[in-house]
Design a protein that fits this description.
The chain is an alpha/beta fold and 229 residues long. It has two domains: 149 residues, Rossmann fold, CATH 3.40.50; 70 residues, no CATH class. 52% of the residues lie in helices and 11% in strands. Strands 1, 2, 3, 4 and 5 form a five-stranded parallel β-sheet that branches. Helix 1 runs parallel beside helix 9, helix 6 packs antiparallel against helix 9 and helix 10 packs across helix 11.
Length: 229
């Protein structure tokens, strides 16, 4: 079986650890090898994600080799206002449209794909670039299993249940900086540590469990699984 190599440009150490230690081992069983790369210069620790920086990194990996694939893993609520498709999403919401998490992600990813294909046409990105925007944040994936999240984070299970009942779908937990998934966990347990606990909880839930509850995440992995060597 021929192997597939995918470089995933990630926002911060939480995503880097998740891809490297939780997701990559699962995908390697299928001959798909994932390599997380932090956005920007060495020492970057996440935060506001500017498209101009991301674009440079995508171009770098596209030009480096012609036999690899490139993907992304960024939080929706951290991407900047100049991100392709962001203005369209914001305008539709201002006009009264009700967009699901998946609706927003599809708009952003389609615009991102179009921009990269146009900019780096000589590298054949139409066949090699698979954008993924997390809805709305990595920690949303951890709400895939209420009992495990509560136990591992040492938070009352009823508090976690209350949040998921409000949104139904983990990926719908909102992009309000004050009420984002990570902020909610930190509020409920001030000792919650993103990088360490994110890995521990994700491992306990398992990739199949996350895929079952998070349709957009599952769709991304399905796309990666369909790539050809």
């Amino acid at each position: 079986m021929n192997s597939i190599e995918i470089y995933i440009i990630v926002e911060g150490q939480t995503e880097q650890t998740f891809v490297r230690d939780v997701l990559a081992p699962q995908m390697a069983n299928k001959g798909i090898y994932l390599y997380p790369a932090l956005i920007g210069k060495s020492g970057h620790k996440g935060g506001n994600v500017r498209f101009d920086r991301v674009k440079q990194d995508i171009g770098h990996f596209l030009k480096q080799r012609n036999d690899t694939y490139i993907s992304t893993m960024f939080d929706y609520f951290r991407i900047d206002s100049k991100w392709p498709g962001k203005k369209e999403v914001d305008q539709q919401i201002r006009n009264g449209a009700t967009l699901t998490a998946n609706d927003k992600a599809e708009l952003l990813e389609a615009s991102t794909y179009k921009n990269i294909v146009k900019t780096f046409s000589e590298c054949h990105p139409q066949n090699r670039f698979i954008p993924y925007i997390e809805m709305h944040e990595f920690e949303a994936l951890l709400f895939s299993n209420v009992s495990i999240l509560a136990k591992k984070s040492k938070i009352d299970v009823l508090q976690i249940q209350k949040i998921i009942e409000e949104y139904k779908n983990p990926e719908e937990i909102n992009d309000d900086p004050v009420n984002s998934p990570a902020k909610r966990l930190k509020t409920l347990n001030h000792t919650y540590q993103k990088v360490v606990m994110g890995k521990v909880i994700a491992e306990a839930i398992g990739i199949p469990g996350i895929r079952k509850k998070c349709a957009h995440f599952d769709d991304w992995l399905t796309k990666l699984e369909k790539l050809k060597a």
